[in-house]
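Hi all, posting the design record for the shared folder.

TITLE: backbone redesign
STEP: 1 of 1
STRUCTURE INPUT:
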């Protein structure tokens, strides 16, 4: 085969591989967003045997102290409760999802999103608002959320955050979700979400069959600083 034909053949195959990877990335990101949407809907509305995010928040709002302190209590006890394999296994039995992901992963994701949404409610946010929903998703990226939110004018820990949330445009909402989907996808690894059960997932995950409370705690802390910042609590 002449050199020119070889070059064309190689270019053609490289292009196919590149396009295939782009398509896999798109599909995987779409699946991630489907899971996030599913988990959020279940978190806000609740389902058989489990409180909604608002009901969960209400149980902690009865405690003394500021919303910041109540959020800390929620994070601490939710981590302890969710770290038991029985709790995760029980959730798995309640989950029916149109996306092929391991039940243990969707269970952990549900626990984390419900926790974040409950913290948002403690901070006075309407969890049925799409803008708040986008911020909840952003918190799933843990420490990366601070930079992500800073890009749209929201400074984590700033008492003016609620006003900034109200001014978020529809276009910005789409950008937040895109960034979250991409961030989570890249953390899952090149094999994509279908093989997530074989990896160490960003979303809390299961390491050796046990709940990764450390990651969930980090996510909870970001949610606390976003929705119930200390300076608001002490104001």
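Okay, here is what came back for every position:
SEQUENCE:
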């Amino acid at each position: 085969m002449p050199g020119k034909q070889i070059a064309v053949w190689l270019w053609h195959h490289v292009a196919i591989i590149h396009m295939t990877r782009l398509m896999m990335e798109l599909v995987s990101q779409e699946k991630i967003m489907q899971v996030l949407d599913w988990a959020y809907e279940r978190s806000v509305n609740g389902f058989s045997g489990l409180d909604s995010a608002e009901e969960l928040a209400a149980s902690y709002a009865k405690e003394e102290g500021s919303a910041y302190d109540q959020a800390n209590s929620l994070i601490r006890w939710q981590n302890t409760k969710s770290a038991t394999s029985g709790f995760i296994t029980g959730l798995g039995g309640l989950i029916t999802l149109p996306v092929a992901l391991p039940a243990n992963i969707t269970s952990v994701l549900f626990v984390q999103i419900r926790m974040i949404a409950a913290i948002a409610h403690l901070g006075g946010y309407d969890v049925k608002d799409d803008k708040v929903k986008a911020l909840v998703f952003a918190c799933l990226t843990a420490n990366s959320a601070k930079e992500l939110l800073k890009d749209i004018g929201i400074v984590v820990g700033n008492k003016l955050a609620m006003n900034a949330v109200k001014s978020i445009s529809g276009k910005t909402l789409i950008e937040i979700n895109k960034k979250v989907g991409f961030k989570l996808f890249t953390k899952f690894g090149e094999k994509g979400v279908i093989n997530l059960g074989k990896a160490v997932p960003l979303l809390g995950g299961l390491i050796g069959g046990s709940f990764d409370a450390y990651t969930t705690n980090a996510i909870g802390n970001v949610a606390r600083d976003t929705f119930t910042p200390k300076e608001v609590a002490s104001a």
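COMMENT: The radius of gyration is 20 Å.
Let me know if anyone wants the other runs.
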